[in-house]
Amino acid sequence: MLLLFLTFNFVNSLSYDNHGYVVYCPCMGRFGNQADHFLGALAFSKGVNRTLVLPPWVEYRYGEIKSLQVPFTTYFKVESLALYHKVITMDDFMDNLAPNIWQPQRRISFCYVQRSGEEQNSCNAKSGNPFGPFWDTFDIEFVGSEFYGPLNYDAHNKAMMDKWNQKYPSTEWPVLAFTGAPASFPVQEENVHLHKYLKWNQNIVNKSKSFIRNNMSGGGFIGLHLRNGQDWIRACQHVKDSPRLFAAPQCVGYKNERGLLTQSMCFPEKSDIIKQVKRALKKLNDIKYIFVASDSNHLLDDFKLALRQFDVSIVKLQQSNPHLDLAILGQSNYFIGNCVSSYSAFVKRERDVKGLPSEFWSFPSPKKVKHEEL
Question: Cis omega before residue 71 (within 30°)?
Fold first, then answer.
């Protein structure tokens, strides 16, 4: 009996991290933006040597007033992340650890400066959607706010990480609960490589491979990502005023050292898209399929008409499934994406890890490519 008691306590002691925990709401944007933020939050958690509590993904469904919180493990493996740093799912943390180390009267929300909302001098951590629904999913109420400015999230600045630990020692602050992700957007250049630890779970892997086997067997395929919904068209109007709009640094560089962002890179003309796909088909061998993922118009009829000479089939998912789209695009023989889109950036990072080739719409410009070939 004594041995069982000692073993139980030893296991319990392993489950609690004396260095503390990082909790945050992935409250900015949809999946692509949240994935960028996740990599930064992972790096930050390692920088301050606290366990990262893996938040659910915030999703928005048509007709639903409030956001939905989808468990992290619905899409990704926890064990692969643990190869890099200490992690625990939000459900496990709230069910098994929070009752002992983060009691309701100790729940303080963290933000850089006060946020607008009902209360003055407050993070107003639950004001608006998805903020309120996210914390409500776990019955979390905050009793106070902590403004951490001027500290920042640069996990590669050891002096800054030391300042966090000095100001917020885990003995007094076992949990740092951030109103938003402790990370920059787009993902900090030094954190891009962390994508290798973010791996699809077996369910997503099986579904993607099954789709490829059943719909694109007997040859290779090019994966295309098209952003052409009305919200994206409006966003691209800001290109001239935002030289590093959204995920654009993956093309132009974090200091625009690889060129300037253009309207065509954000929202290419249909004719330019078709020309680029034709160029890709001419330089690649044994391509029998074109797989298209899009937030709006897949251009299926346009591709079928324009690519008749290549004897390729145009394929898309019958039912919208953005995550399955991503997993399939990650396995294509060649990928063409939108350099401004964080959704495309997710695919590009995954493919870079695998050593698979990719390019972006209108980058570099066709004129520059032709000149270099000469």
Answer: no
pTM of the model: 0.93
Note whether 287 and 219 are within 8 A (CB): yes
Q: In what side-by-side order are the strands of the sheet with 287-294? A: 313-315, 287-294, 220-226, 334-337, 358-360
List the alpha helices (DSSP H) in 81-130.
90-92, 98-101
Could you give the CA distance from residue 323 to residue 326 in angstroms, rounded to a whole number? 5
CA distance 276 to 304: 15
* Residue of 263, 258, 27 whose CA lies nearest to 129: 27
- Asked whether 191 and 43 are in contact (CB, 8 A), the reply is yes
Number of CB atoms found within 10 A of residue 368's CB: 11
Neighbours of 24 (CB within 10 A): 24
Question: Which of these, 225, 194, 221, lies nearest to 76 by C-alpha position?
Answer: 194
Q: What is the pLDDT of residues 139-191, one digit of tens each?
A: 999 999 999 999 999 999 999 999 999 999 999 999 999 999 999 999 999 99
